[in-house]
């Protein structure tokens, strides 16, 4: 069952999201170790979301549609704020003084930023609730099977984002700083786009 969860998680990784881009950018600007700290943060939040789905929090969110709306707009605001901070940081300014986006960052700051970014989409709980419910019906999963499936999915996050960290590290070693600043601008714009899409999609 762990292997099934891993394969499913790897399939999900095909849809590149803001966390993947952020980890790549972090590796390119701050190195492999810093990026892996972010990978750990993302895996921790994914684990919490999957556990929440298993415990039935997804059902509660479905029962209260207004709560889903509030959470969605909050997540969108976080993505837009981080995106704008990334772009503006290239020019030496910072919307969030404690999170300096244009300099090489400490491991602690990267860990916190990755956790906040991953938490920006708590409706992920609904996705996992749907997936696990389907598996429960189709394959007759028991409680321990759902934990194993979730563990496999989290391991896929660790594996995929580690590969992204390695790729980003090559930029950190070989690419000129001006190119890295351009990467920051691109990632910032994409984060803003993700935030806007999150806010407007039904």
Characterize the structure shown:
The chain is mainly α. Helix 1 packs across helix 8, helix 2 packs antiparallel against helix 9 and helix 3 packs antiparallel against helix 8. The two termini are 33 Å apart. It contains 9 helices and no strands. It has one domain. The longest helix is centred in the last third of the chain and has 32 residues. About 3% of the residues have low confidence.
What features would you highlight for this structure?
mainly alpha, single chain, 202 residues
Short recap of the structure:
This protein has helices spanning 2-12, 18-30, 32-55, 57-63, 65-89, 107-119, 124-139, 143-174, 177-200. The protein contains nine helices and no strands.
Set out the fold topology:
Blueprint: H1 2-12, H2 18-30, H3 32-55, H4 57-63, H5 65-89, H6 107-119, H7 124-139, H8 143-174, H9 177-200
Helix pairs in contact: 1-8, 2-3, 2-6, 2-8, 2-9, 3-6, 3-7, 3-8, 4-7, 5-9
Strand fraction: under 5%
H/I helix tally: 9
Mean pLDDT: 77
Estimated structural class: mainly alpha
Q: How many strands, what sense, and barrel or not for the largest sheet?
A: none
H and E order? HHHHHHHHH
Radius of gyration, rounded?
A: 17 Å
Helicity range of the residues? over 70%
Number of strands: 0
- CA-based shape: globular
Cα-to-Cα separation, first versus last residue: 33 Å
**Could you list the spans in which at least 5 consecutive residues all have pLDDT below 50?**
98-103
